[in-house]
Amino acid sequence: MQREALKNVLIVSCQPVPGGPMDNPEMVVGFALAALSSGAGALRIESLPYLRAVRAATSAPIVGIIKRDLSDSPVRITPYVEDAIALAEAGADIVAFDATDRTRPASVAELIAAVKAKGKLTMADCSSLQDAQRALAAGIDFVGTTLSGYVGEAEPVDPDLGLIADMVRLTPFVIAEGRIRSTDQASAAARAGAYAVVVGSAITRTEHATSWFKEAVEHGFADRQPSSKPVLAIDIGGTKIIAALVENGTVRDEVTLSTQRDAGPDRWIDDLAKKSAAWRGQVERVSIAVTGIIDNDLWSALNPATLTIPEAYPLVDRLRQAFDLPVFAANDAQAAAWGEHRFGAGQGQDIAFLTISTGIGGGLVLNGKPLLGIAGHFGLLQSPSAGAGPLEDQVSGRWIADQASRAGHQVDAPAVFAAARQGATWANSIIDQSAGRVALLCRDIQLMFDPDRIVIGGGIGLADGYLDRVIDKIPAEPVRLKPRIVASRLGRHAGVIGVADLAFRSKGTDWTAEGLPGAEYRDKGK
Ligand SMILES: CC(=O)N[C@H](C=O)[C@@H](O)[C@H](O)[C@H](O)COP(=O)(O)O
Description:
Number of helices: 17
CATH class of the largest domain: Alpha Beta
Strand content: 15-25%
CATH architecture of the largest domain: Alpha-Beta Barrel
Structural class: alpha/beta
CATH topology of the largest domain: TIM Barrel
Mean pLDDT: 91
CATH superfamily of the largest domain: Aldolase class I
Bound molecules: N-acetylmannosamine-6-phosphate
């Protein structure tokens, strides 16, 4: 066989779990033939009996190995020269062996010589780039990433794509192998430059693949579990502050205060502590959603025009002092996005959330995870269609009132909507401009993230007819780019419901994003 026979090939390793129900020749031959019938170009087979059985059933290229557990060496894969010769004689086209720099019964050079004497190809199962360098210097035909992560340190979760890319700088004959468990990872290994890609456990170790799926399903079920204890959830916005007793996505009780914009956060927290005193015995944690950014538990405004607060205000510490309970803090629109994803208009879907009120807040939930940090602060985009400055300053309730005053009407945003309902041209024109800018924003969001839905909330977003105007202003063509816009289902409670649920998902006393859904989920090793 020529090396080229493995070019751009999927190799399926058929190595059943030792002692398991699949550990017999019928199963191994069955796996091998099934793999070949569906496009695998080669096989990796362990042990002489299985190699003979598979060889009798197919002429496809086979990488042969023998695994041994030795008392005097950590080398497991084809440790002896006799093993290598026996594999070549039993019909392996390529004989693979451990090529690590560890105590070993036979040198890599001896193994290569023995296999070459039988007219077969050789493959070095390497743990590092240095292993590959030495094996290539000794005349190996293929180097594989097989043993990366298996020579002492804790077993990683992901395949070593970096090592594939590094090896490709030494030789084109690199076989990607080890922990390739998803189709995405297999593509990535090929993209990284591998000559061939080996997949084993994901296809032929039913026990392992089943346990990964079982764990994933359990995570899904756990995500649906109702929160067991009510949370005191607070949402501080530019015009009002909501404090609510939230349990399992439902607001059990609430108080609303208007935001005394000049009073500052210390006062707001004092007021909140007083107003929510009746719930104190019922809750074990406090969660808070705020406009602006939370970084390391410190709160800063991103657009002081929306709400002015001291830079890096120690929000979590102050709340902990005021309530003597663990505290979780998040951006309000990101929390609301999570609320809509869990309990509202975008349940279980990838969504972008926009709240259009005093400013514009935004949040994203993609692949079941909330994006934190500054992700989704769409109101701060500089929009060429709107002119200089952040988009929210040319769309929001503040802008609508300001435009009304320029047109000679000293009224607030709700009054502009009321005037529009009665047919006032000036009012309709202001609202249309605002809605047109939001329509363009929605189209841009669709192009960037392709969410299943864009959920819109906020006092302006949910005001009479506003959403219809936004939808009307989205270009009809091309249809594929048209965002699916829906109204928030949780309304003004989206923030408190979302942040209460997020708080429940954070763990321990360090209320970080660590415990967020998905953050702790990785496939377990074999
Ligand atoms: C480290 C070691 O002993 N690897 C062995 C080598 O033959 C096999 O147990 C693996 O199944 C094979 O490398 C394929 O990898 P995965 O099953 O992760 O796709």
